[in-house]
Batch of 4 targets.
Target 1
Amino acid sequence: MKIVPVAKIREADEYTIHNEPIASIDLMERAATNLYTSIKTGLAKGQRIHIFAGIGNNGGDGLVLARLLQHDGFNVKTWIVQYSDQCSPDFQINLERLKENISFIKSESDIPAVEADELIIDAIFGSGLNRPVSGFTAKLIDSLNQSGAVVIAVDMPSGLFADKAVDLKKHSIIKADYTYSFMFPKLAFLMPENDLYVGRWEVVPIGLHPDFVDHVEVKNRLIETVYINSMLRHRPKFSHKGTYGHALLIAGSKTKMGAAILSAGACLRSGAGLLHVHLPVGNHTALQSIYPEAMISFDDNETHFSWLPDLSPYNAIAIGPGLGTHHDTANALKLLIQESQVPMVFDADALNILADNKTWLSFLPAGSILTPHPKEFERLAGKFDDSYERLQLQIDFSIRYKSYVVCKGAHTSITTPQGQCWFNTTGNPGMATGGSGDVLTGLILGLLAQQYKPFEAALLGVFLHGLSGDIAADEMGMEALIASDLINCIPKAFTKLK
């Protein structure tokens, strides 16, 4: 699903108006009607509903919604937030159509008291806002946030920008419990710091012209199930273990063998034909007792990775989980970068070593996959003030080093050497547990070994990882979820996806 910037959404509206064709007032009616259909089943007839409508088109949507609610017998009061003397033509038409239960807010003294058991619908500014809210409107937003009432935002929480950062400490922004976005999700929804303001969000189709939607160029997208499903390959009847590749996992150290075990388990469950795990000598018992399917490559050192095995048998390599950052390990990693001729995944301590040796980044094999969490990425690419800056740094990093960067978290972002970004749609807070990232590394490694392209392996691995987490959370709850549960649910994730 495309994440379309606000400027392009306006173009989509205009294109639809001229090419469907449809009058702008009728397009507004259709949008608000679809919104009403989305929210009405969750509303109680006896509950008092306050709709706060600005004087632009977002306010016009709110007025249509008010009229539809009143028509169906809901208890609605509409408040016109008159922050200017100029209103949009479609707002004016819908104000004349509504006619009843309307009051105006023109100053701080007009701000009504809203009770905690009432419902607020925010249609003050929407996605068209391009400067911070000020004056009595800011006071209104602060008052609504303090009411304790449930808040539904129409298209965007008022005060929040769709495509850029806002100073969350200084500016007044509606804290929505639910946000219903017209036609496309907004980039702001994917930024962690905005979660308090966006709440749970949903996209409401409004019938924008398919020619525009299909052809508009965007750099940000959401990963959808149907797209991931199209990537999955079917296994030929006469295939064998060699058909599905030979993976090498370089992981673990004397005190961190668990990371290697988790990553190995995920790789085996990904469908890889063969797996070798390169371990410090004498540290193999736990791995082979849990996963006898894994083969062992022994390092000469008893505590950490210090030398390269023969790389020729392998179709893909991953390095990092539980590795440690010993100087021997760093030297061996440098040699691996120089010697490898196959796709590679860099995670955990491999990333920390790269962060301490940034000149090595230029020698990463093209198409490498890096899987940092935000702090690891900061060490690699530099500090950032907000998630928008982090995302731009991530895109720039992928372009500069011809790599795929998987920045882990809610809505994990995957950036490509072409400057695109894909946001994941699976996963849950129960996955915020030690070892979850090791599982992801093993999944991606196994997919690479099966000759999935790096782009495919990154997206498919992230999506399956999150889907496994969703299945695990459904079965045992988020609080009890541990990383090994993700491995156990990978087979169910594949089955569910198919």
Note: The chain has 17 helices and 17 strands.
Target 2
Amino acid sequence: MLRRTARLAFLLALPTAAVGEDATIRGVGRVVPLGVVDTGRGFLEGPAAGPDGALYFTDIPRSQILRLPTPAASPPGPVEVFAENSRHANGLMFNAAGEMVACEMDGRLVAWDTRAKTRRVLASSFDGIRFNAPNDLVIDRSGGVYFTDPRFRAPQPLPQGGQAVFYVPGGGEPRRLVRDLPAPNGILISPDERTLYVFPTDSPSLRAYEVKAPGELGAGRELCRLTDASGRGLRGADGATIDERGNLYVTCPLGVQVISPAGDKLGVIPCPEKPANATFVGNRLYVTARTSLYAYQLSVSGHRYPAGKAVAKE
């Protein structure tokens, strides 16, 4: 937890309307809202902590990648523009080489050298046809990238003829792994890398797949169903992150739904705007929600994916 004086200084620097009440999540503990860190944006997505200590995230309609230099500080400091013309970048994650891998909704999976501010294309097509609109990703310890390719911002009819989950091995060609989900969106891999989680926006059913080997999936199953207060199925799952205990933090119309690895719904972290994605910086949770970036202090820390092989450069 932050010391009381540091937390008070942080809160006083933030708009009071953005500061909610503390919450307690079963199996996780106390969640303290720290407030809005940045606002006035178009549609924020894709937060990812970089090896330089900064937090990177995207503004999709403005086609920008943004950078918060000191997310662990209190207050965390002003946001700066890292890149213009991001080609509508969405999900971000850093690979073992320190590159920022990005899903460009204009049809590519790319890797950025954040120091030189240069990018290279990792994959742009499958079977010679452009991807629909790559959305979100996760990188395994072998350096391979799992990513979702739904309909959002994609040309119509869909170039791929349907929506899918792909895998790009380090330096290899894309493989299509899943093609039967309605709008696959958020994607994560468990800390032991034995389970791949996929969150389809157009279904209340959150999915889990056995990982037999990098890029090779076994049978899929329902992890759990998102439901509203009356118990009815709730669509709208988006991005997600994972903590050191393997609990999932799934953004949805309720807020941030916290789910155990066994599929138990542990509680909801409320958010002033409908959240789109989330990530941890230590035990601080950052949530991108429409026009704003919000911060929360937790008693658990985020899972750090193991550093694997660097993605081979072309």
Note: Residues 1-19, 308-314 have pLDDT under 50 and may be disordered.
Target 3
Amino acid sequence: MKKYLLIFLLLTTIIGNLSAQEDHFLSPAERALMPGYISTRSGESTAAVTPPSSPVRTIAEWEELQALVVGWKSYPTILRQIVAAAKAETRVIIVYATPDNPTSLTSYLASGGVDTINVTFLAAPVNSVWARDYGPECLHKRRRLLDHH
């Protein structure tokens, strides 16, 4: 449990530092992409999503994960620190876009003393370091509690 608390505190500190360094308003490039995001979320997309067969809930920040998704777009020094800490606890998936590639990312991680054991690379479009804005939504199926009284 102490390990999870340590990772939570580390990520909170890092995110706090990022927040202090970055303007929270949309950049002109992000603003231009908004119509596509909105149409996808409003059902205009051709992608079909099958809803879960049972009730679900969003997992809490402190709950155990099967993997941590990191969008490799900016802040490489801080992301390397996150990968170093997180890979000791769970699988880390680094989502990257060109011109990056697994070889250059592996070299960059290694230059900071981070190996790629427990790290997976995924080539996909990345327009922001904030993977939670476009990445998977982490859910748990709700279990029914039976009262045998």
Note: The radius of gyration is 18 Å.
Target 4
Amino acid sequence: MKKILVSPNFKDLLTPNINIGCFPDGDSHVFIPNLVKLRGQKVFLCHRLYPNQNNSLVELILILGLLKKEKIRPVLIVPYLPYARQDKYFLEGEAASAQEICKLFHTLGCQKLITFDCHFLKKPGKFVFENLPIENISLGDELIHYAQKINPRQKLEIIAPDEGASYLVKKQGGKTCLLYTS
């Protein structure tokens, strides 16, 4: 049976077994009790990266660094992947943030990333991006079903935020909003 490491920001779903704190200057501190017992094993790591993407990302970097040091091979479960909006260069001198985040996870020993409705993948399935295996799971059907359940008498108007997310609503006859703001 695979072990599960749970960040405190997942405590609404699972009991945390990672301690994350803050030093007086705001720097994050990470401690994983009994980490050596997991040495060399494959584990599931549950950690949210939203809200507070930047702090949560630093916490994840610290966690992954600890796991890599102990040769622990994490499968990372991140419901929302921040910085996934830009996987290509559009202007000279701009960062492709999705590439950098995925490269970082791969370099820090992440064996696989499991996420939901990843912006740059544009459909559910299994992919490899920047040498990082990614499983993108769509929650579109579940979200629409839930909305219909809590509002059974109202006809829903289902709108995807952009063309890349149109797969989320296509089966239910939804529309795509083509507004773009820079």
Note: The radius of gyration is 18 Å.
